[in-house]
Design a protein that fits this description.
Oligomer: heterodimer
Number of strands of chain A: 0
Distance between the termini of chain B: 42 Å
Strand content of chain B: 15-25%
CATH architecture of the largest domain in chain B: 3-Layer(aba) Sandwich
CATH topology of the largest domain in chain B: Rossmann fold
Distance between the termini of chain A: 41 Å
Radius of gyration of chain A: 22 Å
Order of helices and strands of chain A: HHHHHHHHHHHH
Order of helices and strands of chain B: EEEHHEEHEHHHEHEHEEHHHH
Helix content of chain A: over 70%
Structural class of chain A: mainly alpha
Strand content of chain A: under 5%
Largest interface: A-B, 33 and 44 residues
Helix content of chain B: 25-40%
Number of helices of chain A: 12
Structural class of chain B: alpha/beta
Chain lengths: 248, 283
């Protein structure tokens, strides 16, 4: 699980892509996402993936994107098998399987290069209610805290003789109960304390809170957005309106 | 100086509780004092603190009588918004009062909530970071901080709102001895630089007696002792009410009982005071 989450959790980086305006990164990922849906042949799909791999390399996150791809390959293998069984069309089945990987990668690139701070700004831009944005912020903020909590509880229960790695599947799931209950209780207590601290820091005092940080699009952001839109236009035109391009 | 905090005949009982958490409590604190609140666990300290910043009665229901005045206005009739700007509250666990992903944004959290304009907010955040000497941590994420650093970040967030009165609820309970004494030195410095009043709940009295102006001891929801730390700690009842009397004070009391400590002038609270008294006697 931890290994998988590596493909979606932000870690601080310092590439040109990390420094882009979050809106530019979001648009870029959305366009890549749509392009994967427009690709109608394996060749086109491979082109899209090659582009995304190149982008990941430029953004210095290739290793983690590769990890995401390796993990999604399991699911896409399943998609391939089901498709072959039902459509009996090998090319379409391969296409769907690769498309699934491409879709996951397009979103993964956004999440691993966008800090939670930037995600919050994006959510605010969509004018989501403050409470919703704040709930998201605290959820992400407390992920590492809860992970630490879980490890501590596991250690405590193991030292009391709980054997987590024993028995069949049902037994193992049941073994998690002594971990989950203290974790939930801890979180409830924590949320109470958070609520008090929020009140003490005037949460909800004014309907329109101000913000310490502002994001202003720089020339580089505008350039990237233009390039992305142009590239998308070309890809969309050739993938959708021209006969599907296949391997020569 | 005017009283920043005045508690008048306060009693409070939680909804499901058979007895009062705080009973007939009276307290006046002039501006600029450092007051330490001590007493055994469950004696009503935390409840009392929550009546000062308005969490009681605004967030918790219960039976409330008497009044609490902060800077002259009644907590009952003030909004949480106004109270948040006069009373700063540093909770026991700093982890649960840091909300944002970076230190500087968390310090700005209260100001954002109040709708403070950006330029002013920037200045106040930088000032708070400077006061606590954590400017170098500004871009760090909460999980990259030590407990002591988290404590200072949380306090910076409180101070950025420029409260006149700051409440610290067992601020050293999660800190190692060195970080704890640094925090105490910080409190003394802030009082001197900003004139802020501090109410501190603390079990480790030996850390605070050097800087505190007053010590209030609670037991069973009531105020049982009040005075300067010197007066209170030398009374025999102090220990009976569960107060951790500093070792230095105990040594001096023992010496006084044996009538050999009379040369040690005054009432001693700190190791350095004891040391010089002993040296003085030997000379």
């Amino acid at each position: 699980m931890m290994w998988l989450s590596g493909g979606f959790i932000f870690r601080r980086g310092d590439s040109f892509y990390h420094r882009l305006d979050p809106r530019a990164k979001l648009l870029n990922s959305v366009l890549m996402f749509v392009t994967t849906l427009l690709a109608r042949s394996i060749f086109e799909m491979v082109l899209v993936i090659v582009f995304m791999v190149g982008l990941s390399a430029a953004a210095t996150v290739l290793k983690r994107v590769a990890r995401t791809m390796a993990f999604t390959a399991l699911f896409s293998g399943f998609i391939f098998v089901v498709n072959v069984l039902f459509t009996r069309d090998l090319e379409t089945s391969v296409l769907y399987a690769i498309r699934f990987i491409a879709i996951v990668v397009s979103t993964s690139i956004f999440f691993i290069t966008t800090s939670p701070d930037e995600l919050e700004q994006v959510m605010k831009m969509f004018r989501l209610p403050r409470d919703v944005v704040f709930a998201f912020v605290t959820a992400v903020r407390f992920i590492p805290v809860m992970m630490l909590d879980t490890i501590q509880i596991m250690d405590a229960q193991k030292s009391r003789g709980l054997e987590l790695e024993k028995g069949n599947l049902i037994r193992r799931v049941r073994n998690m109960i002594p971990i989950l209950i203290p974790l939930v209780v801890n979180s409830v207590v924590r949320s109470g304390e958070l609520a008090e601290a929020m009140e003490a820091r005037a949460y909800g005092a004014v309907p329109r809170p101000t913000s310490l940080l502002v994001y202003r699009a720089r020339r580089a952001d505008v350039g990237v957005v233009c390039a992305a839109v142009a590239l998308f236009a070309i890809a969309a035109y050739s993938f959708y309106f021209v006969v599907p391009v296949r391997f020569p | 100086m005017a009283d920043i905090l005045k508690v008048e005949g306060l009693s409070f009982r939680y909804p499901d509780s058979p007895k009062n958490a705080v009973s007939d409590f009276e307290l006046s604190i002039p501006e600029g004092e450092i007051v330490v609140l001590a007493g055994p666990s469950g004696c009503g300290k935390s409840t009392l603190l929550r009546t000062v910043n308005g969490l009681i009665p605004h967030m918790y229901g219960g039976e409330y009588s008497g009044d609490v005045l902060v800077a002259g206005s009644s907590v009952k009739r003030s909004s949480m918004r106004d109270l948040a700007q006069t009373v700063g509250f540093l909770f026991q666990n700093p982890e649960n009062q840091i909300f944002m992903f970076s230190v500087e944004r968390d310090v700005a959290f209260g100001l954002e909530n109040l709708g403070v304009p950006r330029e002013e907010m920037r200045a106040r955040v930088d000032e708070a970071l400077r006061l606590l000497r954590i400017g170098d941590l500004a871009q760090r994420a909460p999980h990259e901080l030590s407990d002591g650093q988290k404590q200072r970040v949380a306090l910076a967030g409180v101070l950025a709102m420029r409260p006149k009165l700051v409440i610290l609820d067992e601020p050293t309970s999660l800190l190692d001895p060195k970080t704890a004494s640094e925090l105490v030195a910080l409190v003394a410095r802030l009082r001197k630089e900003l004139g802020t009043t501090f109410v501190v709940v603390e079990h480790r009295l030996d850390l605070l007696v050097g800087v505190a102006d007053r010590l209030v001891v609670m037991d069973g929801g009531r105020k049982v002792l009040e005075g300067t730390p010197r007066d209170v700690l030398f009374r025999d009842e102090a220990e009976a009410h569960g107060v951790a009397v500093p070792a230095v004070t105990k040594v001096q009391k023992l010496l006084a009982e044996r009538e050999t400590g009379r040369a040690a002038a005054g009432r001693l609270l700190t190791p350095s005071g004891l040391a010089s008294a002993v040296e003085g006697r030997q000379a």
